[in-house]
TrEMBL record:
Protein topology in the membrane: Single-pass type II membrane protein
Protein name (database record): Sulfotransferase domain-containing protein
Transmembrane regions: none
Any single GO BP term: carbohydrate biosynthetic process
Phylogenetic lineage: Eukaryota, Sar, Alveolata, Dinophyceae, Suessiales
Length: 523
């Protein structure tokens, strides 16, 4: 552009030398005007280019907007430094009493009390007062917004067993397998619990308030992560107590565990705990049903944007520097026969490009549908650029749905019988039939422990989406159904024992990872 301008100016100068006589005065004047025009045009172009570079330059975004904050200068990090005092929300069964006593001795958790309003706040702040309201909700809005808060969460099974063992030890000299299971079941169905003890077994989610900043740290890594959080708020670590303790408890009966899962389902979901007794399996060995969890949420954090432009901060477990990070854009991993087409179409109608509409979401050189390939086959840079979610489904029901997929060619009169139905499934699972379009791919093949992946369940899809999407600033109303097979003649009850055996063998990881069962599968 600059070179062309210089060429034009040179041509004008050359022409002006031939126009020295007075009769060419008009030509000379037009030449001067043209030179001015060229100079002004070049200046405008350069100014626009400079502004465009500045607009495109990455700059920090407020965490409350739910966007990624990418920066490296100390001045830009200053915006993330805390400006409020840090206070503790006491949850029984998480050793919060030790932290509470330590903080009170140092004057960290106490707060100024002046006048009648503060006196009422002081009464509300007692987290052990019996009330039908959740403890944190009893605080006035002024107090809740005056501070940043943190709470300690613990595996729900460990927490409720610890609390019940403490209550039971006051009544019995020795706690056995039978009496702790009976006592637990009595507490969970409401027949054993005294009114004064109600607060001690409340779900931990009752303490969550997304309108304020709440750091949530895990009991399992408390000795490592609590100092990190306190240092971020410039609090002294002197005489900080060791709070985590390993406990063993009598074996819990399946009926007892099921009651715990039902009462504390939101705790399992939102705090990313496995629905398994921690003494029997790793805390991250399986994903709970109806979960909105991430396979790596324990090593990162999620900042939830709220209507009040504040942020509820879920404190991470192994962060190298700051106690939180802000969200990335959300994208979708499409697993066949899990409602993916409906999700993609809904997203497209709301201006979101997910799945087959997401151009980057392709696996080069792979046969079949390019958007049903296993997630780990995507380039690492793409996997880590976004947060992701996928939908999983009971493998048995998913296999039946695959049979009715309009792209498999099974909807013909010749194949409309139980024999053809079972042979189709068997040939798809025993390796004798090409698995085109990603059909029959194990759902566990889409997991990637190095990326943020939210796991939703087909059986509770609308509810799960309604929980997840608002965390990314996406409003959700309802999900239309697509590709629904009409007049299905066969279902899971028409699968032969040998077919079910193949399903269990091929999808053993799916049954385990996503907590599904195959009730009719032969031993």
């Amino acid at each position: 552009m600059v070179g062309m301008g210089r060429l034009l100016i040179q041509l004008i100068r050359t022409g002006s030398r031939f126009c020295k006589s007075p009769k060419f005065w008009l030509v000379r004047k037009m030449g001067r005007l043209f030179r001015i025009f060229v100079v002004v045009t070049l200046a405008v172009v350069l100014l626009v280019c400079a502004l465009q570079v500045q607009l495109d330059y990455p700059r920090p975004v407020q965490a409350a907007q739910g966007k990624a904050t990418e920066t490296s200068t100390a001045g830009q990090w200053d915006a993330l430094k805390p400006t409020k005092a840090l206070k503790l929300i006491h949850i029984p069964g998480t050793d919060s009493s030790k932290i509470d006593a330590w903080g009170e001795a140092k004057g960290y958790w106490s707060y100024e009390k002046t006048g009648a309003v503060a006196a009422a706040d002081s009464q509300e702040f007692d987290s052990h007062n019996n009330s039908e309201l959740q403890p944190f909700a009893r605080l006035s809005a002024e107090v809740r917004n005056r501070y940043d808060w943190f709470m300690v969460v613990r595996h729900p099974v460990e927490r409720i067993v610890s609390q019940c063992a403490s209550l039971l030890s006051k009544r019995l000299s020795q706690v056995s397998e039978a009496n702790i299971n009976q006592f637990l079941q009595g507490i969970l169905n409401g027949t054993q619990l005294l009114d004064a003890e109600a607060e001690s077994i409340r779900p931990m989610m009752d303490q969550v308030d997304t309108s304020v900043v709440q750091h949530i740290v895990r009991y399992e890594r408390l000795n490592e992560d609590l100092p990190k959080l306190l240092q971020f708020y410039n609090l002294s670590l002197e005489a900080l107590p060791e709070v985590q303790k390993l406990e063993t408890h009598p074996k819990l009966w399946p009926a007892t565990l099921q009651m715990i899962y039902q009462k504390f389902s939101e705790d399992f979901v939102h705090f990313n705990y496995s629905m398994a007794d921690p003494q029997d399996a790793s805390l991250t060995s399986t994903e709970p049903p109806e979960s909105l969890t991430s396979t790596v949420l324990a090593t990162t954090a999620t900042t939830v944007a709220t209507e009040t432009t504040q942020a509820a901060t879920f404190f991470g477990m192994s962060l190298p520097s700051l106690p939180w990070r802000t969200q990335k854009e959300l994208k979708f991993i499409h697993i066949t026969k899990t409602g993916g087409s409906a999700i993609e179409n809904w997203a497209k109608s709301h201006g979101l490009l997910w799945g087959r509409f997401h151009v980057e979401y392709r696996a080069p050189g792979r046969k079949g549908s390019p958007w049903h390939h296993p997630f780990p086959e995507l380039p690492s840079e793409l996997r880590h650029r976004y947060d992701w979610f996928m939908v999983v489904r009971n493998p048995v029901e998913r296999v039946v749905s695959e049979y009715y997929c309009p792209w498999t060619g099974t909807k013909t009169p010749e194949t409309d019988n139980e024999d053809a139905f079972n042979k189709f499934v068997q040939s798809s699972l025993d390796g004798s039939r090409w698995l085109h379009w990603g059909s029959f791919q194990a759902m566990s093949d889409y997991l990637d422990a190095t990326s943020v992946q939210h796991i939703l369940h087909f059986e509770s899809l609308a509810k799960d989406l309604a929980r997840l999407l608002p965390q990314y600033g996406i409003s959700f109303d309802s999900l239309p159904r697509t590709n629904v097979a009409q007049n299905r003649k066969f279902n899971a009850g028409n699968l032969w024992p040998q077919t079910l055996k193949l399903i269990r063998a091929n999808y053993s990881a799916d049954f385990e990872n996503f907590n599904y069962t195959c009730r009719r599968c032969p031993d």
